Amino acid sequence: VANHLPAPQENRIIKKFSPHPYFDFDVPRNITTRVGQTAFINCRVEQMGDKSVSWIRKRDLHILSAGTAVYTSDERFQVIRSDKAENWTLQIKFAQQRDSGIYECQVNTEPKMSMAFRLNVVEAKAIILGPTDLYVKMGSVVTLTCVISQGPHDLGTIYWYRGSNLVQPIELHPNDPSLAYPHRISVELKWTEALTSRLKILDAKLSDSGNYTCLPTSAEGTSVMVHVINGEHPAAMQRGCATTANRDQHRSVQVLLALLMLLVLAFERWHRTTALDNRAHRGRTAGGSASVRPTIDRTLSQARVITRARPVGTLPGA
Question: Which residues form the Ig-like domain (predicted)?
C-alpha cells in the first residue's frame, strides 16, 4: 500500500530525483497584459545541469534569445534569469497588440524540450454604462456602473473621482450585514465576465453634481457628467434642451433661406438693369443711322434738280 502514492505526490518525488531537465507546469501559461505595460512570461526549468534555455516566437520562428543573450534588434525584449537558474523570464517592455501570440520556452536537450505560452496584449478601457450626461432629480438614487470587459485578470481595483477629488465610499459586499443600513455613498466591486464597479449615491443632493471618473488601476479611465436638479423632471429638462436645439436649428434655416432670397433678388435686379442698358444702346445706334439717311436723300435730290436746269454744254459758273 505504501508503494502506491497519489499521482501528484509521486510525480513530485520522481521529478525531485530526476537527473534530466523538466518543466515546472505550476506557472501561468496564458498571460494577459495591457498595451503599454511590461509583459513577463516566466518559464521554470528544474535540473538544468549544463543545458540552456531559448525563447522562440512562434509566428515567425524567430529565436529571441539563447541563454541570456538576446538575438533581436527590438530592445524591448530581455531575458531575466534567477540566481538559481530555474526561472527564465522573457520580458517585453511597452507591450503592443502585435506582440500577442505564442512564445516557446525551449531547452536544448536531445530531443529538444519545449513549453508554449500564450501572450494576450489588450487595449483595456473602462466604460460607464448609460449617457455621458446624466440628469437626476434631487433626493433620488444615482447609480453609476463602470465595466472593463477585457484586460488582465490582475486589474486590481477601480477608483471613482468627482472632479479631482477621490470619492471615498464604504465598500459593500453581497453578504455584508450592513446592507440593511446602507450608507449614502457606496461602491460594489465584482468579477464576473468583466470587472464591474458600481457607485451608488442615495438621496442625491445638489452638491453631488459634477464630473465623475471611473479610473481602474491598470486601464484607461472614462467620465460622466452628473446633474442633480431641483424641481424640473430630468426628462422634461432634456425635452426642453431638445426643443431649444430644434428652435435654434429652425432659426438657422430661416436665416439661410432669407439670404438665398436676397441673392436671387439681387441677381434679378442686375439682370434687368443689364437688359435695359443693352436695349438703350441698340436704340441709340439705330437712331444715328436714321438721321444720316434723310440728309443724303436731300443732297441727291438737289443734285438732280440742278442737272435738269443746266443746258447741255454749259459749264458751271458760265
Answer: 21-108, 111-230
- 152 Cβ contact partners less than 8 Å away, ≥ 6 residues apart: 32, 33, 34, 122, 124, 218
| DSSP state string for 127-196 | EESS-SEEEEETTS-EEEEEEE-SS-TT---EEEEETTEEP--EEE-TT-GGGGS--SEEEEEEESSSEE
* Pairwise CA distance, residues 318 & 303, whole Å: 18
* Rounded distance between C-alpha atoms, residue 149 and residue 104, angstroms: 28
* CATH H-level superfamily of 8-122: Immunoglobulins (2.60.40.10)
158 backbone dihedrals φ, ψ, rounded to 5°: -125, 130
Domain ranges of the chain: 8-122, 125-170+180-229
pTM, 2 dp = 0.49
Report strand pairing: 170-172 vs 185-191: parallel
3-state DSSP assignment of residue 264: helix
Provide the edge-to-edge strand list for the sheet that holds 195-201. 127-128, 142-148, 195-201, 185-191, 170-172
CATH topology of domain 125-170+180-229: Immunoglobulin-like (2.60.40)
183-233 pLDDT tens trace: 788 888 887 777 889 999 999 999 999 999 999 876 788 999 999 998 765
Quickly tell me which residue has 508554449 as its cell. Answer: 116
> Residues, the chain, total?
318
Sign of the alpha-carbon torsion through 273, 275, 280, 281: positive
pLDDT tens string 50-104: 888 999 999 999 999 999 899 999 999 999 988 776 899 999 999 999 999 999 9
Per-residue confidence (pLDDT) for residue 241, from 0 to 100: 47
Which amino acid is it at 264? Answer: V
Q: 51 Cβ partners below 8 Å, 6+ apart?
A: 21, 45, 107, 108, 109
CB-count burial class (<10 Å; 0-12, 13-18, 19+) for 266: exposed
Cα Dmax for the chain: 176
